[in-house]
Structure formats: structure tokens, C-alpha cells
Write the C-alpha cells for this entry.
Amino acid sequence: MNKITDELYERFKTNLEGVNGTCVRASKENLGKAVAGIFTEAGIPDTCIVETPLMKEAGVINALEEAGIKVYTDHIRLNAEKVKGGVSESQFGIANLGTMVQARDVIDERIVSTMSEYYIGIIKGSMIVPEYDDMFDIISGWPEMPNFVGFVTGPSRTADIECVSTVGVHGPLQLSIVVVDDE
């Protein structure tokens, strides 16, 4: 994949904001500050985080703890029920939908992204594709399909209950994506 362009980022951001999500862009060096800033502004006191090499390198946990946010990195299934925030890295993004794509076998990533009230997804800018069809071209080239591939567009919402739109029934009430300039 390639370095994300300003146009592609703006397209992703605009489409995510169109479904009530928020989006910020950060360098690797500022990733921890960006995540901590989002949670601090929203008043989130604690979070579960599924740490990846990118998040370790960027010092995300340290930045959250320095901001006074309690961080849980283990026993995700138990802790996700009681904390307000959740952070994990998604593998892809789709610009024309403002969608993040989770495509791994790590169940803790799915738990964090669906059980928290405020979820922050981290996506490497180089992993955002322009169109929906581009994502399926990637998926069709995989030698083996992971156990889970999920497309997440904005905070959870449904209109199943008497056709009344409700937010947060099957996932987070608030969703932010941090796009990381990784190349």
C-alpha cells in the first residue's frame, strides 16, 4: 500500500463524520497524545486497549496513563464490561464509506470495539483504500480468510425497534478513528 494522500484522508474523514463518527490524523510520534486527547475531552476515565507493535512504538499506554486514564491490557473480556473506553488497531479503512475493517482472529479486538461506550480505532494511513471494491480485491487475494472480517461504519445504530433510530444498541455510542501517517 502507499502513503495516504491528503485527498484520501479528507474523503475518509468526511464520510466517517457523515455517519456521526469523528476522525483525526496523527504522526506515529503523536499517536498517544491524540488518543489521550480524545478520551480526555470526552471525559473517559478508563479504557481497555489491545496493544499492537504500532501502539507500543508510539507509547499509547504511557500517554493515556500520563493523562490520568486507567488502562487495562489484559483480561479484556472481564474489564470491557465495566470500562468506558476501548482502543484497538484496525487493519484497513475504506475512504468512500468512512469505514474501518477489522480482519484478524484476535477476539479481544472485537470485544473492545463493540463493548466500549467510546471506541477509538487506529488505522495506518497506508492501509486506507479509496473504494469498497478495492477492499474486496485485497480480501480475494488472501491465501487464507481470517475467522472474522468486520466492516464498521460509525457508532452503532439500529432502527429495529418500531423503526426508531437508536444509537449504541450493538456497539459503541461514540466512535473515533485516528489515522496514523505511517510512511
In short: The first strand starts at residue 22 and ends at 27. The first helix runs from residue 6 to 17. The mean pLDDT is 90. The chain is about 30% helix and 25% strand.
